[in-house]
Design a protein that fits this description.
Layout (H helix, E strand, L loop, with lengths): L3 H6 L5 H14 L17 H14 L1 H4 L5 H12 L12 H13 L6 H12 L2 E3 L2 E2 L9 H17 L5 H18 L24 H9 L6 H16 L63 E4 L4 E6 L2 E5 L12 H5 L3 E3 L13 H4 L5 E5 L2 E3 L3 E7 L4 E8 L2 E9 L3 E10 L3 E6 L3 E2 L6 E4 L3 E5 L3 E9 L3 E6 L11 E10 L2 E13 L5
Antiparallel strand pairs: 1-2, 3-4, 4-5, 5-6, 7-8, 7-13, 9-10, 10-11, 11-12, 12-20, 13-19, 14-19, 15-16, 16-17, 17-20, 18-19
Helix pairs in contact: 2-5, 3-6, 6-7, 6-8, 8-9, 8-10, 9-10, 10-11
Length: 516
C-alpha cells in the first residue's frame, strides 16, 4: 500500500490490486470470518500495519472504502478504532493512531478526538531543535526521525492543513530545517548512511524528500530533490536486494537475516515503498518536468548537534562520526547499529554473530577488547561532546575498563586517541573499515605497526601512531557486513596493561566506487 496508494492518488490504475486489497480489508476485519486478523493487545504489531491502511483510506477512499458494503465499512472502522483502546509504545508508533483517527474522521466514522490531540501533543515532546526529533523514550536519532516522524507529520500537514493550519505550518517549518542537515546523510552517488535500526527498509532512507514534495515543502529546488531520489533509487537497484522471484528480501545490500530485528517479517522490506510518495504529485507538478540535478554545494565537514553526529564528506563517500550513545532497549545488534566510531556510505558496517571470537564479532570501526574469553566493544557511553572537529566519548566496554576516545576526521580518514584505564591485563584491536574480499586486485598487508586491505575500488589502512600496536587482518565471518557477504577488517592489536595508558591509531580509507 505504501507504493500503491500514491500511485492511485496520482491517477494510476491497477484494478487487480484494487480488488485484492478491498477483499483483504473486508475479510481481515470481519470478526466472524475465517481470515479475521484478530483483536489486539498492548504494543500490538497490527497497529503498525494500520498506518498504511489509513494512508489509503485518506488519499484514495474511492479505491479502498467506497466500494465496500455498509457492513464491511462498519467492520473496518471498528477494527481500526481498536488502536485507541490499547497502550502504545512511546515512540513514532503514536503517530499511527494519529493517522487512523484522521482517516476515521474524514470518513465520517467514530474517532477519538481526545486521543488524536493527546498523541499529537505527545509527538511534540520528542522535538529537540533544528528540525530534529528523537524517537520517543528510546532517545534514538536515526531514520525513524525522517521516514516516520517527519513523514507522518508532513502527511498530516497535507491532509489536515485546513482543519489545523497552525500545526501544518509548524511541521513544514521543522521539515525545512531538518532537510538542510539530513541531506548530509547522503553521498554524491545517492548512497545513504547505514546507521540505526530497520535498515531492511532500504530506500525508505530517501522517503523524507518525497514527503517534502507531497506536502509542498521546498528546502531545495525540485530538481535537487529529484536528483537525490533518483540517485538513491539507482544506487539500490544496483544491489542484489531481490530474490529470484523479484521479491524484496530482509537484509540490506543482499539477503541477510543476521542483521534483522525481531519485528521483521516478509513484508517489512516493503516499507521502502514510502519513497514513492512522489507518485501522488499531479501531472503539472514541476517534479515531472525538471532534470535531476546534482547535490547542492555542501560543507566538507559539519557537526549536527541534535543528531549527535559529526559528518565528513570524502568525495565518493560520506562518513558520520558518533559517540555511541544509544538506549539499552532494542531489537538486536545495537552496538553494531549505533555504537561504532564511524558509519560510512561506501564501506557500510558489520554486525556480530557472537561475542566469543574476533572473526564472529567482526568489530569494524570499533576498539574491541579481548578478555576472559569474550570480545567487548563500546556499549555504555557515560558522556560525550561533539564539536566541528572531533567526537569525544567516555565509555566502558565491560566492568573494570573505562575509555576516553577522541575521534577526529582527517583529509583521508581519521585519527583515534584512546585513553584507557584498566584493572586487567588484556589485548585490544583498534579496527578500521571492513573491505570486500574475493574481488579483483585484492591486496592484504600485515606489518609491525600497520595493516591494510585493498581491492580494485576501495581500501583501508590502520596504523599504530602511539602505543606499540601490531598490524593484523581479521577475516570477518560471512554475512556480517551489510553490503558484502565476505569482508576483511584491517586492525592494530595493542597490549593493554593495568593502570592508565594512551594509544593513538590512524585510519586511512579510500572509496572509488564499485562498478556494476
Amino acid at each position: 500500500l505504501w507504493g500503491l496508494v500514491p500511485f492511485w492518488a496520482g491517477g494510476g490504475s491497477a484494478p487487480v490490486f484494487e480488488k485484492i486489497y478491498r477483499k483483504g480489508l473486508a475479510t481481515g476485519t470481519d470478526p466472524d470470518g475465517a481470515e479475521y486478523w484478530g483483536g489486539f493487545h498492548a504494543f500490538d504489531q497490527r497497529f503498525v500495519e494500520m498506518a498504511a491502511i489509513a494512508y489509503g483510506l485518506i488519499l484514495v477512499p474511492e479505491k479502498l472504502w467506497e466500494p465496500l458494503t455498509e457492513k464491511e465499512k462498519d467492520n473496518l472502522a471498528k477494527w481500526l478504532y481498536g488502536i485507541n483502546e490499547y497502550e502504545l509504545p512511546i515512540c513514532n508508533w503514536i503517530l499511527f493512531a494519529v493517522l487512523v483517527n484522521v482517516a476515521l474522521k474524514k470518513l465520517g466514522r467514530p474517532y477519538d478526538g481526545e486521543k488524536l490531540e493527546y498523541y499529537l501533543k505527545g509527538a511534540d515532546t520528542f522535538y529537540l531543535g533544528e528540525g530534529w526529533y528523537q524517537d520517543g523514550d528510546s532517545g534514538q536519532k536515526d531514520y525513524y526521525v525522517s521516514f516516520a516522524i517527519h513523514f507522518y507529520s508532513l502527511f498530516y500537514a497535507k491532509v489536515m492543513g485546513e482543519e489545523d493550519p497552525g500545526r501544518a505550518a509548524l511541521y513544514r517549518e521543522r521539515a525545512l530545517q531538518f532537510a538542510k542537515q539530513f541531506i548530509y546523510w547522503f553521498d554524491n552517488d545517492g548512497a545513504a548512511l547505514p546507521f540505526g535500526r530497520s535498515l531492511t527498509y532500504r530506500f525508505s532512507q530517501g522517503s523524507f524528500f518525497s514527503a517534502c514534495l507531497m506536502a509542498g515543502v521546498e528546502p531545495f529546488p525540485a530538481g535537487v530533490m529529484k536528483g537525490l531520489i533518483v540517485r538513491h533509487l539507482r544506487d539500490w537497484m544496483k544491489k542484489p536486494i531481490f530474490d529470484r522471484d523479484g521479491i524484496l528480501t530482509i537484509g540490506y545490500g543482499y539477503p541477510n537475516l543476521v542483521m534483522g530485528e525481531r519485528y521483521n517479517g516478509p513484508g517489512s522490506p516493503y516499507w521502502a515503498l514510502k519513497t514513492f510518495a512522489f507518485l501522488m504529485l499531479p501531472d503539472e507538478h514541476p517534479f515531472w518536468r525538471v532534470q535531476a540535478e546534482p547535490m547542492p554545494k555542501l560543507k566538507e565537514q559539519l557537526a549536527l548537534p541534535y543528531a549527535d553526529m559529526l559528518i565528513r564528506r570524502y568525495g565518493r563517500h560520506t562518513a558520520a562520526f558518533v559517540p555511541g550513545k544509544y538506549s539499552p532497549k532494542g531489537h538486536g545488534q545495537l552496538p553494531a547499529k549505533y555504537g561504532k566510531f564511524v558509519y560510512d556510505t561506501g564501506f557500510s558496517i558489520n554486525i556480530s554473530k557472537s561475542e566469543y571470537e574476533l572473526h564472529e564479532t567482526a568489530p569494524d570501526s570499533m576498539l574491541a577488547f579481548e578478555t576472559g574469553g569474550y570480545i567487548y566493544v563500546r556499549r555504555i557511553c557515560e558522556s560525550f561532546r561533539i564539536n566541528e572537529k572531533e567526537v569525544i566519548s567516555v565509555w566502558s566496554p565491560c566492568e573494570g575498563i573505562r575509555v576516553t576516545s577522541v575521534i577526529a576526521p582527517t583529509r583521508f580518514g581519521h585519527i583515534r586517541k584512546h585513553t584507557i584505564e584498566s584493572e586487567r591485563e588484556c589485548t585490544a584491536c583498534d579496527c578500521g573499515f571492513a573491505v570486500e574480499i574475493d574481488v579483483e586486485g585484492e591486496v592484504i598487508v600485515e606489518e609491525e605497526a600497520a595493516a591494510s586491505v585493498e581491492n580494485h575500488y576501495s581500501g583501508c589502512k590502520v596504523i599504530s601512531v602511539n602505543g606499540g600496536g601490531r598490524g593484523t587482518v581479521i577475516v570477518a565471518d560471512p554475512n556480517t557486513n551489510l553490503l558484502h557477504p565476505m569482508t576483511r577488517i584491517p586492525a592494530v592489536r595493542y597490549e593493554i596493561h593495568r593502570g592508565r595508558q594512551e594509544i593513538i591509531t590512524e585510519v586511512k580509507a579510500g572509496y572509488y566506487g564499485k562498478t556494476v
